[in-house]
Design goal:
single chain; 179 residues; mainly alpha
Length: 179
């Protein structure tokens, strides 16, 4: 048996695919210049203090993330946009494993995205994104133990969630490093 599609249904399917293709082309044209800059060969400095080339590369990452936030692919699902931006920030942070400012910036973006999902009534999305933010800060603590720029947001987030014991554990670990 053959499968036949009426001309009307066929037109609807072709139009739908044409729109999706058009959106993908638009997204690529917006993101391509930013993506080229972040994918350029670059080895970050091994110190906490970024060099001039690192600063330029960080700015390229910020421009890329800002472009992702504009939702050039026209996703209807806010969670998909948040996930793409969170993924980009996570990659950004992983490229600068010894730069606390990048990790702090990434975690704050992720927590703000989680809070926005919660305000829009997406509790499941909020919990997922917030867990990624907590995971990011915990990874940062492993890479850079005792950096207060990363200790305070992690402890604050535990406190906001009502996890006072975990909040105290974060501070205790930090104090153990000093002692």
């Amino acid at each position: 048996p053959q499968f036949e599609v009426s001309k009307g249904v066929g037109r609807v399917l072709v139009d739908r695919e044409r729109d999706a293709h058009s959106q993908a082309v638009t997204a690529c044209s917006v993101l391509a210049p930013c993506a080229a800059a972040i994918h350029a060969p670059h080895l970050p400095a091994a110190t906490e203090i970024p060099q001039q080339q690192d600063i330029q590369h960080m700015d390229a990452w910020r421009k890329y993330i800002a472009a992702e936030q504009q939702n050039p692919a026209h996703f209807k699902d806010e969670r998909a946009v948040s996930q793409r931006c969170c993924n980009a920030y996570h990659k950004f942070a992983l490229q600068y494993p010894k730069c606390p400012l990048v990790w702090y910036e990434a975690s704050q973006f992720i927590f703000n995205a989680a809070d926005a999902l919660k305000q829009n009534g997406d509790i499941e999305g909020h919990d997922t994104v917030e867990a990624r933010g907590m995971q990011l800060l915990e990874q940062a603590q492993t890479l850079m133990p005792g950096v207060l720029l990363l200790v305070f947001p992690l402890a604050d987030r535990h406190e906001i969630k009502g996890a006072i014991e975990q909040c105290c554990e974060v501070y205790d670990k930090c104090l153990e490093l000093d002692g």
